[in-house]
């Protein structure tokens, strides 16, 4: 019975996301590529609806109204007439190697579900995210004001956004109980969405499925993503944030290549959800919005497209206004940004850079992934001196630089210790995008080999 309830909750999420995907005009002929975008958009829609409706009503009325909204979106989107924008070729066109890689990928996704169910939630997964879902469910669908104002609960970060907790709460509504075991279901689903996005986006950028399938398969072999602390199966928000960031930047890259405005709308929809997943999502939203603004400026697009950057700012502003109205206690994760604190701690930059290099070369946590990403970034900078390369490299390098600089303002006496317990999870925000970059660069390098021949010869990548 619990399995059926969780399945119904997840199908409702996908239905809402599918409707939104159809409304922005992006469609596909492969159900797994549609699922990836639908899951990303659907989790954002459902979690936002729960928050907004929880301010006005309570109890069983919240899941009822959310379900009505999800079904309305689904049927509305299903009625929209739009030309098909193929995300992946039909299965009948797949080669034997692509079918084999697809089978391996399905086995890996199954393994992630298994590991998720046999592992308990991690420390942050319980005390930062699931605790909000549990409190909200116990309080008729909305976190009580006492939670935000209780200094004794400041360690649970009341100011963190509710994208993940409200998605967990959505499962609790369907289960009729706060059950941590079934709440874990959403995290392997985010892994599946991230892996399938690698396949779908690289296929659209390259015109060839194999590199994206290889990248998706290799994602499983990055220990930090699959088995390390803070991985995709222990209830942390970092990999879900990385999945949404991949969908955002990937859609913008497809728009750069095709100039199809439907992909820009998809980019804008995913962009709006970044601040709703995690605090760091606000930074990723800013950087991704700047990339989008730069693309509009360089492509001399309509100034009306700048309006597409506003929904994320509205969500971010509304959340901070809400926190202010709730008189939320602060967790003081970092010092205030001012010249005095910057000058006093600027000496930290050297040790922070050394610690970053140590992290990137840690084979036990990352394997060879970051060494491959660095080589790919250098090749991309040399080979592709154009708008798409600028967007891709900026989207990967800028967050890492800002994250590292933030430790200059760490209040911990052992600021490198602070960096040590968090930098691995922060790097997961851009790791999937690094794999997409590697797939693109590898495909272009293969094309340049003498005698290289692929089914999609003649299609463009970043040229």
Please write out the topology:
Layout: H1 2-24, H2 31-54, H3 61-79, H4 96-118, H5 123-138, H6 145-149, H7 163-175, H8 180-183, H9 186-206, H10 209-219, H11 223-226, H12 238-258, H13 261-277, H14 280-298, H15 310-325, H16 339-345, H17 349-360, H18 363-366, H19 369-383, H20 387-406, H21 415-427, H22 431-447
Helix pairs in contact: 1-2, 1-3, 1-7, 2-3, 2-7, 2-9, 2-13, 4-9, 4-10, 5-7, 9-10, 9-12, 9-22, 10-22, 12-13, 12-14, 12-20, 12-22, 13-14, 13-15, 14-20, 17-21, 19-22
Can you walk through the features of this model?
With 463 residues, the protein is mostly helical. It has one domain. 70% of the residues lie in helices and 0% in strands. The radius of gyration is 21 Å and the shape is globular.
Helix content: 55-70%
Any low-confidence stretches, pLDDT <50, length ≥5? 82-92, 454-463
Mean pLDDT: 89
* Helix segment tally: 22
Secondary-structure-based class equals mainly alpha
How widely separated are the two ends?
A: 52 Å
Strand content: under 5%
Radius of gyration, in Å, reads 21 Å
Q: How many structurally independent domains?
A: 1
Largest sheet: none
Global outline: globular
Q: What is the H/E string?
A: HHHHHHHHHHHHHHHHHHHHHH
Q: What is the count of β-strands?
A: 0
Key traits:
mainly alpha, globular, single chain, 463 residues
């Amino acid at each position: 019975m619990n399995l059926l309830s969780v399945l119904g909750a997840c199908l409702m999420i996908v239905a809402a996301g599918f409707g939104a995907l159809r409304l922005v005009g992006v469609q596909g002929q492969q159900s797994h590529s549609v699922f990836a975008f639908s899951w990303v958009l659907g989790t954002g829609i459902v979690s936002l609806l729960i928050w907004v409706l929880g301010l006005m009503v309570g109890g069983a009325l919240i899941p009822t109204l959310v379900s009505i909204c999800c079904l309305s979106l689904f049927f509305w989107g299903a009625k929209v007439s739009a030309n098909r924008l193929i995300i992946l070729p039909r299965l009948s066109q797949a080669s034997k190697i692509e079918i084999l890689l697809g089978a391996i990928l399905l086995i890996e996704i199954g393994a992630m579900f298994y590991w998720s169910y046999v592992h308990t939630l991690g420390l942050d997964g319980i005390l930062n995210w699931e605790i909000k879902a549990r409190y909200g469910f116990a309080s008729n669908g909305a976190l009580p004001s006492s939670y935000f104002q209780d200094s004794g609960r400041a360690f649970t970060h009341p100011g963190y956004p509710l994208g993940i907790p409200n998605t967990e709460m959505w499962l609790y509504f369907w289960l009729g109980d706060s059950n941590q075991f079934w709440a874990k279901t959403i995290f392997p689903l985010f892994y599946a969405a991230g892996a399938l996005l690698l396949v779908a986006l690289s296929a659209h950028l390259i015109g060839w499925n194999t590199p994206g399938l290889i990248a998706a398969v290799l994602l499983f072999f990055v220990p930090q993503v699959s088995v390390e602390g803070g991985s995709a199966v222990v209830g942390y928000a970092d990999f879900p944030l990385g999945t949404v960031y991949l969908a955002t930047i990937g859609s913008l890259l497809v728009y750069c290549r095709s100039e199809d405005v439907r992909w820009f709308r998809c980019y804008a929809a995913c962009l709006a959800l970044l601040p709703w997943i995690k605090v760091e999502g606000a930074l990723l939203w800013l950087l991704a919005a700047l990339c989008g603004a730069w693309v509009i400026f360089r492509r001399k697009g309509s100034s009306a497209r700048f309006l597409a950057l506003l929904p994320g700012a509205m969500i971010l502003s509304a959340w901070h206004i809400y926190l202010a109205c709730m008189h939320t206690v602060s967790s003081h994760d970092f010092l205030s940004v001012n010249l005095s604190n910057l000058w006093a701690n600027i000496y930290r930059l050297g040790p922070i850079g050394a610690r970053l290099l140590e992290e990137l070369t840690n084979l036990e946590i990352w394997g060879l992934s970051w060494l491959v990403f660095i080589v790919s970034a250098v090749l991309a900078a040399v080979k592709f001196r154009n708008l798409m390369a600028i967007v891709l490299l900026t989207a990967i390098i800028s967050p890492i630089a800002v994250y590292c600089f933030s430790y200059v303002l760490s209040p911990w006496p052992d600021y490198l210790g602070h960096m040590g317990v968090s930098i691995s999870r922060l790097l997961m925000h851009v790791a999937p995008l690094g794999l997409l970059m590697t797939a693109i660069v590898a495909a272009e390098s293969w094309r340049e080999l003498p005698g290289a021949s692929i089914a999609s010869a003649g299609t463009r990548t970043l040229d």
